[in-house]
């Protein structure tokens, strides 16, 4: 069959090109532009080449923030994913209680992030917060403004409170899609509860769990608002995650060049990890199919 | 292997059933003889699957008891009943290999590894999948998956009963035939009590020793294929079994004669006084076309040649009559009568068959 060539068709994708240009390409290029220049203010810029990248690659401050970030993401994934699955498994399957659970579970997801931070900031205060005050009265040393361990616990518990629902809801959706016949067959086959989970529920949830892990990883790796509101990155630098550090650098110190270089590297790291994760998971899927 | 007894069994999906219509399964007393192969035949929604799930324990009946070899198992969970059941749509454990799938029910019951290996091999051959035993079950075609489900149902030798819930729906016709033959063979070899739910009459009639026909939540007839064909106890059996189904004509019955909308016919047997709506039922196989003034006057509306015979669709005063004519017969323009063979005439009152008195 002969194909007709019509170059005018390019005009049809023009609106999309313009949209993407303004929403992504141009802002990103601005950052790229900053990352290779230096400025002393007054809108005067000097060419700096890849200097900032080199400097940051050897920067201890960045390494520390990256380390904290990775530990934070791993901890919250290790808690939220199993906990979310556990909650989903124990949620009612239908009826009034199922709807109630869904609404209650969704609530934390609907709260603006800085409000979440504020809630926990107050909740944890030793002088007026319910949690901080109670712990203090019980004789447990807890002060997130002075003790970095307490600060970490607060930030992690806050994230678990805020986001476990998302994993639970996704896992719940996955569970709901399993036909009854599977459970019936498992009963006929005398499968134990663990085997039902291992061989029916987990494989059927694989797809949604992959999405849940990916979302939680990306979001936690970019976390800014909540810890910033609660601890402001402190005490010291103990809860200064990558994005908090980035904002300090860009707006606090007005080091636009290094901050831009930082942003680009940050972006590439998330892109890379997500890509690797996604590829590995989808390949696992394919390999099983053969 | 067990005899299964159902006592006053009934089930409703509603929490507080009030009228008989609320019951998906109406009160039922029945005994499934040990080692027989039954087919449970009926249209969709007649309660077949409900009954099956009650026997396997997946459903708890609203009332009544279930006994295996005279032991009450009504309150026993599925796992303790030692039942194998195969469902309409394939259920496989995706992440396992075909081999592990087949071995799963045996391993869960703590069977010996060497026995499992040998038995799985045997079942693998039976379902024609020995070449694929080490493949992951995920990504197989629907009928391969259903073969695995069937295999998992057949892998245990000591089950009390084997239940099949329309298992061949997704299998292609050729494989259907083969698997059904293997199921029969399996029944022959091991003598399991088998209950096979289907809405396909051919499947039911070829598979089972006894066919149980269900209609609207109740059993309307249980019998051999021949009994179902010759003496349907209920009009539903008459038109559900057979192709085309039985002809039913409203009639007034008086002794040996029926008055069908003004025409008298001989019934071949006498009937006493019958109340209610009376009908004459004749299978198309027991009719023939005629000429002159014998039988009932008809108008032929259509003739369908189905190969081995012709199906003649005719109209008698607004009631449809199907007639089977031999393949070689010419359907002439003068054929405007239908004659019923008295041996094939059944009389129905309010949908149920009435026995004739010996002539």
Automatic annotation (TrEMBL), chain A:
Keywords, sorted A to Z: Membrane, Transmembrane, Transmembrane helix, Transport
Membrane-crossing segments per the record: 12-36, 70-89, 96-123, 149-175, 196-218, 259-278
Chief location bin: membrane
Family to which the UniProt record says this protein belongs: Belongs to the binding-protein-dependent transport system permease family.
Protein name in the entry: ABC transporter permease
Domain ABC transmembrane type-1: 66-277
InterPro entries: MetI-like (IPR000515), MetI-like_sf (IPR035906), Sugar_ABC_transporter (IPR052730)
Entry membrane topology: Multi-pass membrane protein
CDD domains named in the record: TM_PBP2
From TrEMBL, chain B:
SUPFAM superfamilies per UniProt: MOP-like, P-loop containing nucleoside triphosphate hydrolases
Classification via Gene3D superfamilies: 2.40.50.100, Nucleic acid-binding proteins, P-loop containing nucleotide triphosphate hydrolases
Keywords: ATP-binding, Cell membrane, Membrane, Nucleotide-binding, Transport
UniProt cross-references to SMART domains, sorted A to Z: AAA (SM00382)
InterPro entries: AAA+_ATPase (IPR003593), ABC_transporter-like_ATP-bd (IPR003439), ABC_transpr_FbpC (IPR015853), ABC_transpr_MalK/UgpC-like (IPR047641), Mo/tungstate-bd_C_term_dom (IPR008995), NA-bd_OB-fold (IPR012340), P-loop_NTPase (IPR027417)
Domain of life: Bacteria
Domain ABC transporter: 4-241
UniProt keyword annotation of ATP-binding present: yes
GO molecular function: ATP binding
UniProt similarity note: Belongs to the ABC transporter superfamily.
Name of this chain's protein: ABC transporter ATP-binding protein
Organism: Paramylibacter ulvae
């Amino acid at each position: 069959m002969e194909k007709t060539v019509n170059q005018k068709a390019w005009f049809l994708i023009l609106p999309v090109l313009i949209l993407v240009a303004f929403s992504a390409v141009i802002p990103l290029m601005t950052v790229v532009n900053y990352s290779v220049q230096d400025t002393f203010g007054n809108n005067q810029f000097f060419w700096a080449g890849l200097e900032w990248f080199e400097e940051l690659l050897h920067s201890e401050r960045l390494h520390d923030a990256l380390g904290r970030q990775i530990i934070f993401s791993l901890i919250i994934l290790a808690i939220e994913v199993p906990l979310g699955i556990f909650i989903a498994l124990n949620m009612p399957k239908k009826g009034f209680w199922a709807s109630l659970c869904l609404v209650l579970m969704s609530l934390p997801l609907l709260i603006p992030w800085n409000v979440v931070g504020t809630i926990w900031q107050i909740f944890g205060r030793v002088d007026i917060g319910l949690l901080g005050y109670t712990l203090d009265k019980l004789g447990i040393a807890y002060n997130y403004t002075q003790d970095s361990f307490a600060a970490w616990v607060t930030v992690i518990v806050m994230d678990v409170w805020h986001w476990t629902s998302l994993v639970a809801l996704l896992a719940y959706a996955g569970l709901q899609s399993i036909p009854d016949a599977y459970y019936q067959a498992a009963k006929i086959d005398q499968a134990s509860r663990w085997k039902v989970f291992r061989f029916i529920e987990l494989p059927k949830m694989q797809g949604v769990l992959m999405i849940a892990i990916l979302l939680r990883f990306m979001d936690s790796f970019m976390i800014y608002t909540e810890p910033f509101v609660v601890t402001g990155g402190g005490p010291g630098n103990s809860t200064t995650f990558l994005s908090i550090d980035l904002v300090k650098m860009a707006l606090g110190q007005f080091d636009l060049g290094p901050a831009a270089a930082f942003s680009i590297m940050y972006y590439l790291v998330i892109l890379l990890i997500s890509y690797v994760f996604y590829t590995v998971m989808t390949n696992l899927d394919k390999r099983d199919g053969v | 292997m067990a005899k299964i007894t159902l006592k006053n069994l009934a089930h409703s999906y509603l929490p507080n059933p009030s009228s008989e219509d609320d019951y998906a399964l109406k009160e039922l007393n029945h005994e499934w003889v040990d080692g027989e192969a039954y087919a449970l035949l009926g249209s969709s929604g007649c309660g077949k699957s409900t009954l099956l799930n009650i026997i396997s324990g997946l459903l708890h009946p609203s009332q009544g008891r279930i006994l295996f070899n005279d032991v009450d198992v009504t309150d026993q969970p599925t796992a303790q009943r030692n039942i194998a059941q195969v469902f309409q749509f394939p259920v496989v454990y995706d992440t396992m290999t075909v081999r592990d799938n087949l071995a799963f029910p045996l391993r869960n019951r703590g069977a010996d590894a060497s026995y499992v290996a040998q038995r799985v091999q045997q079942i693998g051959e039976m379902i024609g999948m020995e070449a694929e035993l080490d493949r992951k079950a995920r990504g197989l075609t629907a009928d391969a998956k259903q073969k695995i489900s069937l295999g998992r149902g057949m892998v245990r030798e000591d089950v009390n009963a084997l239940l099949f819930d329309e298992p061949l729906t997704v299998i292609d016709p050729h494989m259907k035939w083969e698997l059904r033959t293997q199921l029969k063979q399996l029944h022959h070899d091991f003598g399991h009590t088998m209950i096979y739910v289907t809405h396909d009459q051919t499947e039911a009639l070829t598979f089972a020793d006894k066919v149980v026909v269900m209609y609207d939540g109740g059993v309307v007839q249980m019998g051999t294929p021949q009994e179902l064909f010759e003496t349907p106890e209920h009009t539903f059996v008459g038109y559900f079994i057979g192709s085309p189904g039985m002809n039913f004509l409203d009639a007034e019955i008086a002794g040996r004669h029926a008055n069908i909308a003004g025409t008298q016919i001989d019934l071949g047997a006498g009937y006493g006084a019958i109340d209610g709506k009376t009908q004459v039922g004749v299978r198309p196989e027991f009719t023939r076309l005629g000429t002159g003034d014998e039988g009932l006057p008809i108008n032929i509306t259509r003739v369908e040649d189905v190969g081995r015979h012709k199906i003649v669709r005719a109209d008698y005063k607004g009631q449809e009559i199907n007639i089977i004519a031999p393949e070689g017969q010419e359907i002439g323009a003068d054929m405007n009568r239908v004659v019923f063979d008295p041996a094939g005439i059944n009389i129905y009152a309010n949908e149920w068959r009435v026995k004739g008195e010996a002539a």
